[in-house]
Amino acid sequence: MSGAHDYLTDLFNRSYFEQQLEHVLLEASDKGARHAMFYIDLDQFKVINDTAGHEAGDEALKQVALMLQSITPSKATLARLGGDEFAVILRHCDAHDAVAFGKEILLLLDEAEFYWQNTRFSFSCSIGVRLIDETAGSPQQVHAQADTACYAAKDEGRNRLHLYHPDDEELKRRELEMEYVNHIRDALVEKRLELHAQQISPLNGGAGKHHYEILVRMRNQDGSMVSPGLFIPAAERYNLAHLIDRYVVQEAFHGYKRTRKRLSS
Fold this sequence. Notes:
By secondary structure, the chain is of the alpha+beta class. Helix content is 50%, strand content 22%. Helix 5 (139-155) links the parallel strand 6 and strand 7. The termini are far apart.
């Protein structure tokens, strides 16, 4: 098996796929060629791993690979990117051809069945498609845009296809959220999340214990504030909210202890 192939499925691997993606992007810019990238993510694949174990999951991935190979044109590039994610570069096609091929993949997997030790599992997938034309940027951008379109397909109900459009406002918002994933991780490490306390006061003005609402804000590395409307949805969508929750609780207790010490001294 060569270094260009995935160890489990014998499809092309991520490294080879990215080389081919760079090549077709050059063709699109230099020669006006038209291609498409498909980002394919299996729906609910975790159920097979959790229910039947990783051995069953590996066998299911091999079967998916064989099914995808059976319908992928010889001049296309089919790869396993890792986990339950696959990708295809379909050469010399327009939007109509790309959508037709994507629907063929959806139908193929939706009708397939996988049996493991007398247990039946179903397959389905969500697909994001990015046309490789004059609007395409770098390989990283095309890959991210196909990935974003795939997330949109999942949100729309799974077992669906979403075609990326450069003027798609919803996908632009998702792309921005994806960019903030790394910003959030960096901010947590560098402690650039700030807590602000807002007092909660009764309308009747009655005396009693003081209550406060804790608000979290994030600063960029240049010191500017980031709108919570940007980083909170990104954290919730990409499973980072629990890290922010933990940070807020820890910092809130540390702040409370510091305040108690200052008042008692």
